[in-house]
Specification:
Shape: globular
CATH superfamily of one domain: Immunoglobulins
GO molecular function: transmembrane signaling receptor activity
Number of helices: 2
Strand order of the largest sheet: 2-9-8-4-5
Keywords: Disulfide bond, Membrane, Signal, Transmembrane, Transmembrane helix
Radius of gyration: 24 Å
CATH architecture of one domain: Sandwich
Largest sheet: 5 strands, mixed
Structural class: alpha+beta
CATH class of one domain: Mainly Beta
Number of strands: 19
Protein name: Ig-like domain-containing protein
Distance between the termini: 21 Å
Order of helices and strands: HEEEEEEEEEEEEEEEEEEEH
Organism: Oreochromis niloticus (Nile tilapia)
GO cellular component, one term: external side of plasma membrane
């Protein structure tokens, strides 16, 4: 009986330690592309501030570096004046190990960017893409592309995708004649019932988007599974002993 109580206690402790509220990384201005020397603010939004969320990133030259090494940190937020070398994958990470959604930020030294949702968008929502130049008037007509194919060649700098669905997921870019083409950005569409944006699976070539601590969830699952098996075996063993004594 004592062994069973100990196993139950260990199971409950493991369950509680593996249940951690997940933060959501937000970016302001809300865009996945920026011009060189733009001011960008990143923040880990989560109800339980005691989790101690830290902003980290992977770039072509850095791996899992904290905000203190490339920006100005304040609580669970980080501000930075961006340059092309700041292009990479950003996420929030807690002391306990869980991580937030990941976002790809691209910084260009060119003259055209595509402003698109940096976080996954909900099925059925309308999404507006904006083709933006750094120094020229903002009313120039733009062409928009999805997965390399032209989808709009209108007279406006923006394009609205109405009632998005999973088929609208893909790589988008824009072009303003005489000024250049933007980089490509991935747009993710989530199910209406999804409450937490999943980590993005796309990243610039050569970047690792899976931090070491992302395996913590799997470790917790294995621990809970082992303890559950031990509890079941203990219960079956005690039941077998009881039946043997009766017979």
């Amino acid at each position: 009986m004592k062994e069973t109580s100990v196993l139950c206690l260990l199971f409950l402790i493991s369950l509680l330690s593996c249940t951690t509220n997940q933060a959501r990384l937000t970016v302001s201005p809300s865009s996945s592309q920026f011009f060189k020397e733009d001011f960008v603010s990143l923040s880990c939004e989560e109800d339980d501030s005691s989790a101690g969320w830290t902003l980290r990133r992977n770039t072509s030259t850095e791996n899992r570096t904290k905000c203190d090494q490339w920006g100005k940190s304040a609580n669970s937020s980080c501000t930075i004046i961006v340059y092309p070398s700041d292009s990479g994958v950003y996420w929030c990470e807690s002391r306990e190990g869980p991580i937030s959604n990941m976002v790809n930020l691209t910084v260009t030294g060119g003259s055209v960017i595509l402003q698109s949702p940096v976080l996954p968008v909900m099925e059925g929502d309308d999404v507006t893409l904006l083709c933006k130049t750094k120094t020229t008037p903002s009313n120039l007509p733009a062409a928009f592309y999805k997965d390399g194919s032209l989808i709009s060649n209108g007279s406006s700098v923006n394009m609205t995708i109405q009632h998005v669905s999973r088929s609208d997921e893909g790589l988008y870019k824009c072009d303003i004649s005489g000024h250049g083409e933007s980089n490509s950005s991935w747009i993710t569409v989530t199910d209406k019932h999804t409450t937490t944006p999943p980590p993005t699976s796309t990243s610039p070539p050569g970047f690792s988007i899976t931090p070491v601590m992302s395996s913590v969830g799997s470790v917790c699952f294995v621990i809970l599974l082992v303890l559950l098996v031990l509890l079941i075996r203990q219960h079956v063993h005690r039941k077998f002993e009881g039946e043997t004594q009766i017979s």
